[in-house]
């Protein structure tokens, strides 16, 4: 048996890995239904380069959100029961990149907070001048599941800030899956960490064989959040098979021709925003405007230690 080759992932391990395989290993198939014949028949799959007749959009909007748990809480109900909860802060923002002028600027940002719990009696919390409205979650409200409840309000905030910044002819790039934003026009979901492998071994070989600046053919996922999707490789030095590869998706409501058009547009747009290893521990997938936006948004959340203290003081006041 030949000795297996190994590669070092370019990402700082503190951020995980650019490809996170399931317990079954990198070859473990996803349960999602896949239609690989959208752009090319599966038997003809090959790497696709940038088309010279496809210009980059004049304006690209990149939107992202961050969230943080400020405190874990417990309620004391009148009947003796107790429910867990989390006090969370989250923020969303959008960067407008004017490619014609070569300029980027913050086009909007907003902060939201909330108390997430299944408690039927929980009330809004006012911690100093900071307001945590109650977001009542369904089910039994286990503590481990509460962080996921923040995603809905955060997504709504991302939609609000991006809607306010949009202009005709722009391209909106969402950092992460589209989820409930699939109705937005000219919008791409940008997935920089690959948790699942959707394609069979032969088609995956096309993906891992992409050169920088190439993409895979468009395919379609039949999941609950399904849509058109494709992979592309950003500028990256030679390395692991999945180095520099991202998955991009767009709405299933589009025609196949429209999805292919967006795939071509992504190939002449996204590589120019790729980060470099000496500046970003998640290079090249963590796009330069997104990295700057994340830093800005985390600063807007406020001092975590101070918020924890005022939440503790507010809880003592409520008990009195």
Please tell me about this protein's structure.
With 320 residues, the chain is α+β, with helices and mostly antiparallel strands. The chain has helices spanning 151-165, 201-208, 256-267, 288-300, 304-319; strands at residues 34-35, 48-49, 59-74, 84-98, 103-117, 125-127, 130-132, 134-136, 171-175, 187-191, 214-215, 219-221, 227-233, 245-251. Helices cover 20% and strands 28% of the residues. The strands form 3 sheets. The chain has a 10-stranded mixed β-sheet with strand order 1-12-13-14-10-9-3-4-5-8, with helices on both faces. It has a two-stranded antiparallel ribbon with strand order 2-11. β6 and β7 form a beta hairpin. The protein is globular. The model is unreliable at 3-9 and 21-27 (pLDDT under 50).
Observed structural traits:
320 residues, 5 helices, two-stranded antiparallel ribbon, alpha+beta, ten-stranded mixed β-sheet
Nutshell version of this structure?
By secondary structure, this protein is α+β, with helices and mostly antiparallel strands. It contains five helices and 14 strands.
Largest sheet: 10 strands, mixed
Distance between the termini: 71 Å
Average pLDDT metric:
88
Q: Total number of helical segments?
A: 5
Task: Write down how many β-strands occur, each being a DSSP E stretch of 2 or more residues.
Answer: 14
Give start-end ranges of low-pLDDT stretches: 3-9, 21-27
Helix content: 10-25%
Cross-sheet strand order for the largest sheet: 1-12-13-14-10-9-3-4-5-8
The chain-level structural class is alpha+beta
Strand content: 25-35%
Give the H and E element order: EEEEEEEEHEEHEEEEHHH
Oligomer: single chain
Radius of gyration: 22 Å
């Amino acid at each position: 048996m030949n000795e297996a080759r190994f590669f070092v992932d370019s990402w700082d391990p503190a951020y995980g890995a650019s490809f996170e395989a399931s317990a079954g290993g990198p070859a473990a198939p996803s349960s999602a239904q896949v239609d690989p014949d959208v752009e090319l028949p599966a038997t003809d799959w090959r790497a696709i380069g940038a088309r010279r007749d496809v210009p980059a959009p004049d304006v690209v909007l990149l939107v992202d959100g961050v969230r943080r748990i400020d405190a874990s809480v417990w309620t004391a109900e009148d009947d003796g029961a107790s429910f867990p909860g989390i006090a969370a802060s989250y923020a969303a923002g959008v960067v407008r990149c004017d490619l014609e002028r070569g300029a980027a600027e913050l086009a909007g940002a907003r902060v939201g907070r909330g108390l997430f719990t299944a408690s039927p009696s929980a009330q809004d919390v006012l911690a100093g001048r900071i307001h945590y409205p109650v977001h009542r979650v369904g089910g039994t409200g286990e503590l481990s599941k509460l962080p996921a409840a923040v995603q809905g309000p955060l997504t709504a905030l991302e939609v609000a800030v991006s809607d306010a910044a949009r202009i005709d002819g722009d391209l909106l790039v969402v950092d992460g899956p589209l989820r409930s934003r699939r109705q937005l026009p000219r919008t791409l979901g940008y997935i920089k960490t690959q948790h699942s492998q959707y394609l069979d071994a032969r088609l995956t070989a096309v993906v891992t064989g992409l050169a920088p600046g190439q993409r895979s053919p468009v395919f379609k996922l039949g999941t609950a959040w399904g849509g058109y999707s494709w992979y592309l490789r950003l500028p990256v030095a030679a390395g692991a098979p999945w180095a520099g590869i991202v998955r991009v998706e767009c709405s299933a409501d589009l025609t196949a021709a429209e999805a292919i058009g967006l795939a071509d547009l992504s190939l002449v747009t996204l590589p120019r925003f790729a980060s470099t290893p000496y500046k970003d521990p998640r290079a090249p997938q963590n796009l330069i405007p997104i990295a700057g936006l994340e830093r800005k948004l985390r600063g807007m959340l406020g001092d975590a230690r101070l918020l924890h203290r005022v939440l503790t003081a507010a809880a003592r006041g409520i008990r009195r």
